[in-house]
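Subject: complex prediction, re-run

Hi both,

The earlier run crashed halfway through, so I resubmitted it with identical inputs.
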Amino acid sequence: MAKSIGILTAGGDAPGLNAAIRAIGKAALRTHGMQVVGFLDGFRGLMDKRHIRLDSDALSGILTQGGTILGTSRSKPHKMQIGDQIIDMREAMVENTHQMGVEALICLGGGGTQKNALRLAKRGMKVITLPKTIDNDVWGTERTFGFDTALNIATEAIDRLHSTAHSHHRIIIVEIMGHNTGWLALGSGIAGGADVVLLPEIPYEIDKIAESLTRRKAKGSRFSIVAVSEGAISADKAEVLNTLRDAKDNSKGEEKEAARAKLADFEHTREGHTARLAAELEQLTGIETRTTILGHVQRGGTPSPKDRLLATRLGVEAALAAAEDDFGIMIADRDRTTTRVPLEEVAGNRRSVPLDHPWILTGRQLGMGFGD
Ligand code: F6P
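This time it finished cleanly. Structure:
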């Protein structure tokens, strides 16, 4: 049984992280008699040995707090920016835990963190992960904590946009986070009654969107709400994107770096995409159009009860897995139960919205437009 564990939070923050830290910590201290430390600012703190002791006092009163008391960063163990250099710090991180007497590491994060945790596991670190992200896109789990809170925030925003869109007879385009998946836009779009929902999983044609908005107007609806996932993309651009992604995934060494750079250039051309979409739709429909970008407000504030419950359940299981010396796993929520999934299966995969998902089918039955 591991006697001393470390916890870190990496990637974008999400509501429920502190609930998870508290659950791991309390179960580890009280039930399993372990020592617990928290590394600060993700993998960067592990590299620098910057940490705090997570004792009962440190864990008290954090359940309802948003963000993460440990801080976070997007630093990657194998590509650490140190000064003007990029250095592989995996060995150093493993060595740090040995020196500190930390026997196992629990990493709380999204898709990138699952990959980074596996990279350390392959260097001999005893690792367990938890799935957190507002995007809900971690492979191997049906829910990530953070998603429910963000869903509530985005839904409330859509609710509120209805009355102003209605009063001014406008189209309001609301951009919703989600990275390359559309869970958040789809869920809040349906819950908030959006008229059109655009997802990365369903490349759109602008004429089709304009058609459905014009049809609505012809039928007497004098306003429309369009929920756009930040990763939504037109069909022609999706083709280019897929080619660039394939080139990156199927190359090695210098070629891979070049393909990565091309992909990054392409991503830059997509900045301001929602504002451009709004301008085009205004022109095509002749209806005054406004844009709202929800941004980081979707990640802020206190976690919903559902996220607290999920984070707490998964956190307690992570402490138990450490006590049982079960490593190289992610603690997942599947079929309404807590499950341990091999990290090898999770890392490098993304959970997109399946095209036959009940939420998509529900939206179609309601006459919601998807731009396809
Ligand atoms: O992964 C969570 C997320 O909020 C995504 O929805 C979004 O694309 C990204 O993080 C934003 O990242 P940052 O906070 O680094 O701007």
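The pocket of 6-O-phosphono-beta-D-fructofuranose is lined by residues 12, 110, 133-135, 177-179, 230, 299 (CB under 6 Å).

- K.
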